[in-house]
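A favour, since you know our structure tokens better than I do. What I am after is a single protein written out in full by you. Could you add the entry underneath, on a fresh line?


***
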Amino acid sequence: MAMAVPQYVVPSRHYFSKTAVPSLHMQVSDKIKCALRNAICGKVHLTTDTWTSKHGQGRYISLTAHWMNVVAAGPPADSSLAHVLPPPRIAGHHSLPPVASSSYSASSSTASTSSSGQPHTFTTNFSTARGKRQQAILKPICLGDRPHSAKELWRGIEQQTDEWFLPVGLKPGLVVCDNGRNLVAALGLAGLTHIPCLAHVLNLVVQRFIHHYPNMSELLHKVRAVCARFRRSHPAAARLSALQRNFGLPAHRLICDVPTRWNSTLP
């Protein structure tokens, strides 16, 4: 920066840690809460996962919220993006409100600003409205050195639902996750309905087939050893690149498969 823009003063580390990052966090949180407040259903469905840091920084659990908002075009003179309409919340089902001939008056959250700077409201017919899927990754929770027990996971999930859903009058709905016993037990403690993850179930089926197919495990073991050799050894990788150039082959690196992703084993 001293060479590019000498007059620019780089903010201190204290500014970023105490002002910039907290301000950004607050802005994103407010936008998510505003979108949740306009959810058309009383429940928000979730996907969740747990993992352990490879760098020894602890264990984590995260929640991704999924809900629906109603969006519609703004007033004729407004060329901005679509406005989010906060319709009456639907209880018990997840369909859009029936299309009616009457119009709906937007609240202050969807009010536009006139040329004089004074805010004004407008009406939008529900016949032009449509549902839009929304999703947001909520704050990951670090469990530290605490085990991934059902009780600890339940406390983490409850903390997130209380922080994000209770203030806007929402409740957690269905929860999609893998079949881990601790996570399924935690959902049971929280009184939430568990939906098995289709991708996880499919991976278990494929992995079981590979394990029981004759000679497949031995073949994969040898292939993984070859891939690991060229990925860990710089001279071997350089020799492979030279051979690819000499024979006019694409310069591809060998890719090791990931056990949790069946399509990486069977491309």
